[in-house]
Amino acid sequence: MTMPTPAATCPACGASASGKFCSACGASLEPGSCLRCRAPVGAQARFCHRCGYPVGAGVQTAGSERWAWIVAGTVSTLLVGVIVYNVVTQEPAPRIPDMANAGAAAGDTTARAGGAPDISQLTPRERFDRLFNRIMQAAEQGDTAQVRRFTPMALGAYAQLDTIDVDARYHAAVVRLQTGDIAGAHALADTILEQSPNHLFGYIVRGTAATLANDPGARSQAEREFLRRYDREMAAGRPEYRDHAPVIEEFRKEAVGGSGGQADGSRKP
Fold it and tell me: Mind listing the pLDDT tens digit for each residue in 91-124?
């Protein structure tokens, strides 16, 4: 026959209690240890029998010790969870894009800041257009290093085009002119005029190449051919003429001044 567990007095509230915890206040009835000297201390003791430290202030029961470890583990888990959450959900630091994949539209603020967006997911024409704009922007700023750096990328994108229109050929010629490739630009001008006779872009490229080559005769010839075709070509309403209207108008003014004549290219005696 099992003997009943003798009743004890709860050290916390003084109520009669049995088992591991007081049914009145929930305090532990298990023996513990003194926090000062670690000696075993009975559940009902008020002072440590070894060092005299007050039990109420310094006893750690087996149950409370386990609970303390549980609390500490829970807090640690929560802290780790918070750190992981912050790392995963916070905004990533701005990444400087790989310059081997770089390119920017003329109005892109990242290009003005010296960076460039990733263009690896763009079509060849979109890449070529963005790289062309980036080169033009660098040229306007006098940044010849950037012009040289982006030119091979732009010409590489141009070589990958499925279809090449006059506008793309003109852009490729301008890119070549920016790096002093006069022969390459002149070849593109010839192709423009072969595929689209009388196109003003062909004469603009020829004239600009002649200026870079310090060939005034070739420059005058290009200006005359340009002016002779100017009115009829502008009346055709080509979209690329609207897109490059400032360039065309500037070349026309120089051609008129250079020839000493009117828009038909006639010379004064």
Answer: 443 332 222 223 333 344 344 445 555 667 889 8
The DSSP secondary structure of the chain, one letter per residue, reads -PPPPPPEE-TTT--EE-SSB-TTT--B-S-EEETTT--EE-TT-SB-TTT--BHHHHEEEHHHHHHHHHHHHHHHHHHHHHHHHHHHHSPPPPPPPPGGGB---TT-HHHHTT---B-TTS-HHHHHHHHHHHHHHHHHTT-HHHHHHHHHHHHHHHHT-SS--HHHHHHHHHHHHHTT-HHHHHHHHHHHHHHSTT-HHHHHHHHHHHHHTT-HHHHHHHHHHHHHHHHHHHHTT-HHHHHTHHHHHHHHHHHHHHHTS-TT-PPP-
Is the pTM value of this prediction over 0.85? no
Neighbours of 231 (CB within 10 A): 10
Domain locations in the chain as residue ranges: 12-82, 100-259
Distance of CA 114 to the CA centre of its chain: 12
Overall fold of domain 100-259: 1.25.40
**Of 117, 92, 87, 121, nearest in space to 105 by CA:** 117
Q: What is the CA radius of gyration of the chain?
A: 43
